[in-house]
Amino acid sequence: MKILSRLILTIAFIVSSVSDSYSQMPADAYNAADSLLRLTADKVYYGNVMPEWIGRTNRFFYENLTPAGKEFIIVDAGKLSKNKAFNQERFAESLEKETGKKFDAGKLPMRNLLFSDRLSSFAFTYDGYNWICNLRDYSITKREKVPERPARSGWDWGFRDELANDPVESPDKKWVAFIKNYNVYLRKADDKKEYQLSYDGAVGNYYSSYIQWSPDSRKLVSCKVRPAEKHIIHYISSSPEDQLQPRHYSYEYQKPGDAVPQKYPQLFDAVSLKHIKVDDSHIPNQYAISNIKWSRNSDYFTYEYNRRGHQQYDIVKVDAESGDSKVIISERSPTFIDYSGKKYRYDAEESREIIWASERDGWNHLYLFDSSSGELKNQITSGEWVVRNVTRVDEKNRQIIFQASGKEAGDPYFIYYYRINFDGTGLKLLTVGEGNHNASFSPDYSYFVDTWSTVNTPPVSVLRKTDDGKVLMELEKADISELLRTGIRLPEVFVSKGRDGVTYIWGIIIRPSDFDPSKKYPVIEDIYAGPHNSFVPKSFRGQATSMHQLAELGFIVVKIDGMGTSNRSKAFHDVCWKNIRDAGFPDRILWIKAAAEKYPYMDLERVGIYGTSAGGQNAAGAVLFHPDFYKVAVASCGCHDNRMDKMWWNEAWMGWPVGVEYSESSNVDNAWRLKGKLLLLNGEMDYNVDPSSTVQLVNALIKANKDFEYVLLPGAGHTSGGVYGERKRRDFFVRHLLGLDPPDWNMLEK
Q1: N or C terminus: which one in the chain shows less Cβ crowding within 10 Å?
Q2: Which residue from 289, 305, 386 is spatially nearest to 341, judged by alpha carbons?
């Protein structure tokens, strides 16, 4: 009996062990996901046309990836000719003689090609040096070393030091203007004699060294500055590379509600040495005074005034003789003016007009103003679509080439190019072909190269005539057959109605390469709901992305642009105002539910979400504010409380003064709501989002007695965590959505 009992226990242990072994995700699955990038690299041929126009000519060149390797093509738009740029085999031989290294003509390692106007030579960089190839005899000359670009030290969120600029020379080079003892001075170039122009500058009320001379060198503008107290945040680098002990850093970083410097433009006459007082009654409670700009004939200057709270944005005009000022264009909004994303201004001085972008009719459009009176002459573009950018203003012919989205049928985010007259007539579509267009114009704007695609249709590149958009020559049509042979599945575009039952919400669905519709798949959303843009990819990507890699482990991965993001109507965008916590979730949830109704293999009982930065705030917010739908979240370096993050971004959407809305949208103040599983990651040295924001969420979760996971990345900046962070994210979803144990990484060799 004892032997039988022992045998039963032994069998049970073996069965349990076998069962446990099947409950672990094999490391090979991760390796397969990692290999997707290598597997899909360089598998799209004829799909990477990025034209470089040669000098001021109508010729351009581009690199072309072919099955045989990389080739270089030159096109003459005037002659409609297309030829190889040079003999690559001969060039490879010459480069080999010069360097002693062997080169494959189809894999030439040079970069930054620059052809001479007559195509007799070209410059390139290789191995850290500049080189010249003479195409008459293919002789190659090594030139100077390529200067190293200084490493970016991070973001600069502080206010400009108004005393830090160098002295400013007048256009006629007879004077130099500078700041001395906080006042404006002039120094004559010939005898070096100094003249004091202002006398009321002081430590807390000084003149800016960023001085603007009038074109005729007779007058100059400097702002009188009332500085604000700087907000300094502190960092401890726990594990610096060059020493054992931690190191302290500090950094200027203005946050919502902080004081803002006030700047008052002041006018000075360099001939009479007089200070002309400027009327400043139009500019109380500034967020910024910017873009001081003299007229061509020096009779006035303008500047832009952004009132604190971003609900008023004006152009102010100042008379150069009297200092009298008046507002000539004024934007007002009950919510916000998207000054950082949609502002556009062009001064047509010959006709004394200003082309100005505005959302005053509910859509971002162009308007024509009289710059003398400020009178609106006419609206240039109109309709339920969005001007995205202006490519060219042709004052002589009074025409504008611009980019817009939403006017053509289909995806409202696709960019097309148009031409229109200043008076709003003659609207002409220049880029026919459904997809997201990118155009490169010749120096004289006679021709342009148009490349368009969608996320699941490969790029087509053509040469067009600018005056009518007519196709003159097909340059390349991408071949993706080799990419498809890898087994990768292209994204599917999916559309459903949002919370209002009317507006369509657009997104994509990504499936694993071994997708089986008879199985059930957890759904993971890659989220970034920052109101400053839209984020779902619109153009073809010839290589797997991190979303594909995650899907490869057995997930359906989606990405969506919900309400509150940009590039649609003003009403669509306004959803975010004082309401960052919304993040478009009501639209996103409806979208995913609609997709699951069409595709029952999407398991809505197992929905995860992840994001970085604003997406990190969104991801954590999903399991705080919508835990009945989102069950698992991974949030990297999130701005979890908008009062802790940079001033400009957060006041733009959350408003000023700082109100109760900040707390209502705060993940920290709402940490007690957590249900489901949450993993937080952040870099110790994040100069974009104050890392204390994540730590404060950690603190709030601990106080609320919540269960969660946290990874601090020593020395790391604003990041999703790199290779380690990616593995932790995958492990978290594998464990909590697939119900499998990740590989035992400590037992595996590196």
Answers
A1: C
A2: 386
Q: Select from 640, 523, 519, 676 the least CA-distant residue to 591.
A: 523
- Report the mean per-residue pLDDT for the chain: 95
DSSP calls for 569-620: -HHHHHTTTT-GGGTTHHHHHHHHHHHHHH-TTEEEEEEEEEEETHHHHHHH
Q: Which amino acid type is present at position 341?
A: G
Residue 145, token pair as written in the block: 């070393």
- CA within 13 Å, CB half, 202: 3
Residues 61-92 have pLDDT tens digits of 999 999 999 999 999 999 999 999 999 999 99
Segment 356-371, tens digit of pLDDT: 999 999 999 999 999 9
Structural domains of the chain ordered from first start: 27-40+483-747 (3.40.50.1820), 52-145 (no CATH), 155-340 (2.140.10.30)
15: pLDDT strictly greater than 90: no
Half-sphere exposure of 428 (CA within 13 A, CB side): 15
**Cα–Cα distance for residue pair 326/417, rounded to 1 Å:** 35
pLDDT tens digit sequence for 432-486: 999 999 999 999 999 999 999 999 999 999 999 999 999 999 999 999 999 999 9
365 near 358, Cβ under 8 Å? yes
Amino acid at 573: H
CB 339 within 8 A of CB 357: no
Cβ-based neighbour number of residue 171 at 10 Å: 14
